[in-house]
Amino acid sequence: MRIIIVCYPTFGGSGVLATELGHDLAKRGHFVHFIAYQKPVRLNEDNRTIFFHKVNVPFYPLFNFQPYELALSTKIVDVASKNKIDLIHVHYAIPHAYAAYMAQKMLKSSKITLPIITTLHGTDITLVGKHPFYKNAVKFSIDKSNIVTSVSKSLKNDTHEFFNTNKKIKVIPNFVDIKKFNNQLEMCKNEDDIKTITHVSNFRPVKNIRTLIKVYSKISNQFNCKFNLIGEGPELEVAKSMAKDLKIKNIDFMGNNNEVEKVLCHSDIFILPSKTESFGLAALEAMASKNAVISSNRGGLPELNINNKTGFTCDYNDIDAYVEAILKLLTSEKLLERFKLNSYKQAQKYNIENIVPMYEAEYKRLIS
């Protein structure tokens, strides 16, 4: 099949998932064309089976904000026309599904059929989609997509509730390449006995960074631990300032990283206190690296992180509950090791080899 994938090219979960999906589809013999405003951070373009097409948005003084959706839909039409594309897979309802629908209509006038599969990842529904300015556009994009998937049962239910739509939504969860994490674990050696607690995110307010730093501070006052934070975003400077004011020892702000498995393999506990999280790909990557997980109980996280088995779930703003959960693991090596092993076993269920065929089956339904 010849497939277009449209995604955000950033370090966020949806862009990572879309990129890894494209890589695996190419290995399975498909031709994959990525379209975005810049090259996705994890994309390995080979010019034989994986291609990247940049959306260029020309500047016109007439517009306060340049019309990205128009440029995107035009690029989709161009790529689909020149490459005999079979289908388009967009990640996020807006603006991607919206632009894909416009492209679909433009191509129809040239007697070219472009079926649309839309994957909902979370904030397009739980944050952006709830805004009254965008709600109707999101619902329209969902209803006009030929197939819709979501990354968790929680997100599926939220979509039906928020938009009062009867659109059939298939749950296809996020995934990891277990082989990649296994290879890293085999090479990974911990040189000391100090426990490491790690967080990975794009440092948006929804990731609850301020609560995270307060938790780190309380743990730092009681245990000699290492605290790693991977990623960048709008709350990063706030986090650094808080860490300095609270005098947190052994804290390392590591920036963005394309190979998080090389850091996570040295970690023991992963914490994700998000205010909302439709799946939690960062947590899944930590589980594949044999980390016990402490997370909020919001959205799809309880589907992934099984309370009292792979880790603990807490109310997103309950600092004391997070601290208590971490202390349980730090004070019981036996419990920590059991949770780490359970996390790894849970991650194996989400292996890329199990999940990508689910997308392939939906593609075949689209073009049959």
Detailed description of the structure:
With 368 residues, the chain is of the alpha/beta class. It is elongated. 45% of the residues lie in helices and 17% in strands. The longest helix is centred in the N-terminal third of the chain and has 16 residues. It has 2 domains: 190 residues, Glycogen Phosphorylase B (Rossmann fold, 3-Layer(aba) Sandwich), CATH 3.40.50; 171 residues, Glycogen Phosphorylase B (Rossmann fold). The protein starts with a strand and ends with a helix. Helix 8 packs parallel to helix 9 and helix 11 packs across helix 14. The strands form 2 sheets. A 7-stranded parallel sheet has the order 3-2-1-4-5-6-7, with helices on both faces. A 6-stranded parallel sheet has the order 10-9-8-11-12-13, sandwiched between helices.
Task: Give the helices and strands, then pairings.
Blueprint: E1 2-6, H1 13-27, E2 31-36, E3 50-54, H2 68-83, E4 87-91, H3 93-108, E5 116-120, H4 123-126, H5 135-144, E6 147-150, H6 153-163, E7 169-171, H7 178-187, E8 196-200, H8 209-220, E9 226-230, H9 236-245, E10 251-255, H10 261-264, E11 269-272, H11 281-288, E12 292-296, H12 301-304, E13 311-314, H13 319-330, H14 333-348, H15 352-367
Parallel strand pairs: 1-2, 1-4, 2-3, 4-5, 5-6, 6-7, 8-9, 8-11, 9-10, 11-12, 12-13
Helix pairs in contact: 2-3, 3-5, 8-9, 8-13, 11-14
